[in-house]
Amino acid sequence: MRGYAEPKKPSLLQQLAAIHLFVGLIGLVVGGIVLHRTLNTVVWDQHRRAVIEAGQAIIQRLRTEGVEGLRRPLPAEPARRFDAATGSMRYAVIDETGRVLAVSPGAESLFPRLESGHIPDAFQEGADGSRLWGVTEPVATPRGHLLLQIGQDMDRGYVVLDDVAPAAVGPILLVLALGGLVLFGANALLLTLAMRPLRRAAEEATQIGRGGRQRLSAEHLPPEVEPLIAAVNAGLDRLDEALVWHRAFSEEVAHELRTPLAIVQVELDLLDPGPARDRLRRDIEGLAQLVTDLLEAAEASRDAAIEAGVFDLAALARETAERLGGMAEREGHVVVPPPPGPPQLVRGNRDAIGRAIRNLVENALSHSPPGAPVEVLLPEAPEGEVRVAVADHGPGVPKAERDKVFRRHWRAGDTHRRGLGLGLSIVERIVRAHGGRVQVGDTPGGGALFVIGLPRAQRETAEEPARGALAQPQPA
Question: How far apart are CA 386 and CA 368, in angstroms?
Answer without folding.
Answer: 26
